[in-house]
Amino acid sequence: MLKNQSLFLSALVVLILFSGSSCKREYSSERLVEFDENVFPETDEKIKFIEERIALNPNNPENYYLKAEALRNVGKYTDALEQIDKALALDSSDGNYYLLKADVLHKKGFVTRSLFLL
User: Fold this and answer.
1) Has residue 33 been placed in a domain?
2) CA 82 to chain CA centroid, nearest Å
3) Contact by Cβ (8 Å): 100, 68
4) In this structure, is residue 36 part of a structural domain?
5) What's the pLDDT tens digit per position in 78-105?
6) What is the span of the domain harbouring residue 63?
7) Using 50, 70 and 90 to split pLDDT, how confident is the model at 45?
8) How many Cβ atoms sit within 10 Å of the Cβ of residue 31?
9) Over the stretch 8-39, which tens digit does the pLDDT of each residue have?
10) How far is Cα 105 from Cα 80, in angstroms, rounded to an integer?
11) How many domains does the chain have?
């Protein structure tokens, strides 16, 4: 297990280092303000706010990505995967979406599957 974790982390670091410039997101004018813990101290509030943004603009993959991050942070990995898949369906070119999906899969115990995304 430790070998798998170190392999995963090594692959993740290499991917981040070599794909930094290709993973830039183009933010629309509706881009959410950076989620700071001081602005949204409760994750439930953060998720509710993101859901409101999704209702306003269901074609913005960034909103699904942000919701997936929030869900991952509270251990709701299955829900996070559902949201990140929606983001990928709208924009499959953003490397950050794949990194988040790999991280969530890894946390769910699907180490090998997560490595294939990297």
Assistant:
1) no
2) 11
3) yes
4) no
5) 999 999 999 999 999 999 999 999 999 9
6) 2-17+41-117
7) confident
8) 14
9) 656 655 555 445 444 444 444 344 444 545 55
10) 10
11) 1
The total number of residues shown for the chain amounts to: 118
Q: In 3D, which of 26, 12, 20 has the Cα closest to residue 91?
A: 26
Q: Which residue has the tokens 């899969």?
A: 105
Residue 52: Cβ-neighbour burial (10 angstroms; 0-12, 13-18, 19+): exposed
Provide the angle, in degrees to the nearest 10, between the axes of the packed helices 95-107 and 2-19: 170
Closest-CA residue to 76 (of 108, 41, 109, 48): 108
With 0-12 CB in 10 A as exposed, 13-18 as middle and 19+ as buried, what is 11?
A: middle
Retrieve residue 92's tokens.
Answer: 């499959």
Quick count: other Cβ atoms within 10 Å of Cβ 87? Answer: 23
